[in-house]
Amino acid sequence: xxxxxxxxxxxxxxxxxxxxxxxxxxxxxxxxxxxxxxxxxxxxxxxxxxxxxxxxxxxxxxxxxxxxxxxxxxxxxxxxxxxxxxxxxxxxxxxxxxxxxxxxxxxxxxxxxxxxxxxxxxxxxxxxxxxxxxxxxxxxxxxxxxxxxxxxxxxxxxxxxxxxxxxxxxxxxxxxxxxxxxxxxxxxxxxxxxxxxxxxxxxxxxxxxxxxxxxxxxxxxxxxxxxxxxxxxxxxxxxxxxxxxxxxxxxxxxxxxxxxxxxxxxxxxxxxxxxxxxxxxxxxxxxxxxxxxxxxxxxxxxxxxxxxxxxxxxxxxxxxxxxxxxxxxxx
Length: 331
Ligand code: AMP
Ligand code: FES
Ligand code: ZN
Ligand code: ZN
Known about the structure:
Rossmann fold; six-stranded mixed sheet; two-stranded antiparallel sheet; binds adenosine monophosphate; binds zinc ion
């Protein structure tokens, strides 16, 4: 197996490119795909200060590494979600990466800074954990970016993630979500600009980036995500990809090129009027609390969750995830 570019021994085959690559040229490919995403979607100015949301997983550490290497000024943001051992471990990976590269990392803890955690919020509200978790993360990304004066929030969403979300939105023909499913969302009404520079790279490619760069990351999936629809959509697309290499990229990138422009009128309409949350001052739609004031969804969530006694993560894990965790603990 030889590298397409230099003919030296290859370390990875990428069927969608119909080619193999050595470590050096795999990195070149990843860098170029990120530069293309940044350029095509006009994500950043060279002087921007970027807040990179890092989970301790391969994608967010890879995007931080690549943006730093490309010369951007970056600060990491890790949110401790209180998901037991999974959260402790993932925090360590984020901290180790930041320390090794000498990069600043902001750490925000749901439990210490807001008085609740994801398992407790899920139980207190009757929502699935991923919903309480996603809402909390988005709120904290926005607030830290606003308070710190960052130019954009960067996340590690990759091609597999975006294709799976697109698949879910298209199964429901959720046109409002489809209209907003873009690699770059401009700042609006007090919300910061949001960018996903990895949309042209698959998770296999970002994992390979981390391996050749010596970046340690948390391999386990979140124990509460087991069995969710997003993972099922990913598996379905992987089956299709196996049959026709490149199908996933052409599905998602074709959406961006040919379908998203048709929906752009709809996303402009969604730039609706925003109010200010009476509790935290964040911009919010017109959600009204029982006392008639406008309170954002995160503050309503946190009010409910803070009043609930702490719920251990095991209580919310699916049966199969609990069985796997018990098996691992037994060695
Ligand atoms: P997920 O929603 O878990 O698929 O993660 C998508 C992206 O959100 C990741 O690539 C990160 O950029 C960001 N992210 C996820 N979890 C955290 C976390 N605990 N703290 C900061 N950013 C996170
Ligand atoms: Fe959010 Fe698992 S990381 S629920
Ligand atoms: Zn090579
Ligand atoms: Zn609020």
